[in-house]
Design a protein that fits this description.
single chain; alpha+beta; Hypothetical protein af1432; two-stranded antiparallel ribbon; 3 domains; 9 strands
């Protein structure tokens, strides 16, 4: 039977026989894993007051087998709480966030890259994209949750990269390597002072010079480990190169930039605009894609960009739109043979009434209806409150 534990009862070093979850059923601490100070501080920062678990406190750490404390033990807890109300794609997404937070914490404390954990996260994200591509794009676009920047940006960029890579036709092995590259592409940001990383107004020239050191920093640290494929290392070093040669750190041009880095350049730019940040408004998937396309002639590989456009369309899932009959809805999926006529879940009908049933309009089938304009979240909220 699940029991509630106050955050005030949590102590550093505690180990539980079952995972600790938030009250909305997101795993925050895995079973068999000692609670670290960084874990506790993160719970406080997120404003979590209580946790729930079906497990017991393990009082004697010697009773924890090496297998339980190894990463493989996480797999046995992955199916926890199957009866939760939360959709599986949200659970998988938050599960990946939790695991990547653990990876970052371990890396900062030990300077050890847990490659097994990285590969496991990437394969969970591949599973997520394969089963729930439209739902997870929409969730990223509409979410107002703010996690740690490096964690969220890395997970989202990996999701976007894998979607683009699949559309491009990369092999399964290449998709996994691209995913690892995406997860680690901004790992050098961990060395950037937080006052620069979290600055809400414009960076000074000197601060921007410091930011621009992160690809080289990551490359040097990862290269010393001798555990990463050269394709991954090249992607980390080159993900801020631009197709026209105006990027950094080496001003490489065209196909001299590694293929994975060319994918990361598009994913990084797209994610930076749709993701929630406390200090600025997000763009809709539509406006983010428009912005990326506007820079297509100089910054990005046109073949790679075409794969993203095919995968996401000009109206990516999660885009809030107003139709010509004045109804408002959100794009749920793309009709690839008619990209300007996606499927729309109606949120507000043409009379201004909120719709609580699952009403989906396929614009490919309804030729009388078309998208009049794209709304941002603020505009939609105003319509809801009217």
């Amino acid at each position: 039977m699940a029991k509630k534990i106050s955050i005030n009862e949590i102590k550093i070093g505690m180990v539980f026989t079952e995972p600790l979850l938030t009250e909305d059923n997101n795993i925050v601490i895995q079973a068999g894993v000692p609670i670290k100070e960084a874990d506790y501080n993160r719970l406080v920062r997120w404003g979590i007051k209580n946790l729930i678990t079906n497990g017991e406190i393990i009082t004697d750490e010697k009773n924890i087998s090496k297998e339980e404390l190894s990463y493989n033990f996480l797999k046995s807890n992955e199916e926890v709480n199957k009866n939760m109300v939360e959709p599986e794609y949200k659970y998988l997404y938050n599960f990946c966030i939790t695991l990547y937070n653990e990876f970052i914490t371990q890396l900062q404390e030990t300077e050890v890259y847990d490659k097994a954990k990285l590969k496991f996260i990437v394969n969970k994200i591949i599973q997520l994209v394969t089963k729930y591509k439209n739902e997870i794009i929409s969730y990223m676009a509409l979410s107002n949750k703010e996690y740690d920047y490096i964690t969220t940006h890395s997970i989202n960029t990996t999701l976007i990269s894998i979607i683009g890579g699949k559309e491009y036709g990369l092999s399964d092995n290449e998709i996994e390597l691209l995913g690892i590259s995406a997860l680690l592409h901004d790992i050098g940001m961990a060395k950037i002072p937080s006052e620069i990383l979290n600055k809400s107004n414009k960076l000074t020239d000197e601060e921007f010079k410091i930011i621009k050191t992160h690809p080289v920093t990551a490359f040097k640290n990862m290269n010393k480990t001798n555990i990463f494929n050269s394709a991954v290392l090249d992607a980390i070093l080159q993900h801020h190169e631009q197709y026209n040669g105006n990027g950094y750190p080496r001003k490489l041009v065209g196909e001299k930039i590694s293929l994975f880095a060319r994918f990361l350049a598009v994913s990084d730019a797209f994610e930076a605009q749709i993701a929630y940040r406390s200090y600025r408004k997000t763009k809709t998937g539509y406006l983010a894609m428009k912005s990326v396309l506007a820079e297509a002639s100089n910054k990005f590989d046109p073949k790679v960009l075409r794969a993203y456009l095919n995968a996401f369309s000009i109206y990516p899932p999660g885009t809030i739109v107003q139709l010509n009959d004045n109804s408002i809805g959100t794009v749920t999926s793309i009709n690839h043979d008619a990209p300007l006529r996606p499927k729309i879940k109606i949120l507000i009908d043409k009379f201004g009434e909120r719709i609580f049933e699952n009403v989906v309009k396929d614009l490919k089938e309804d030729e009388e209806c078309f998208i009049l304009k794209v709304l941002d979240k603020d505009e939609y909220q105003k319509d809801v409150k009217k």
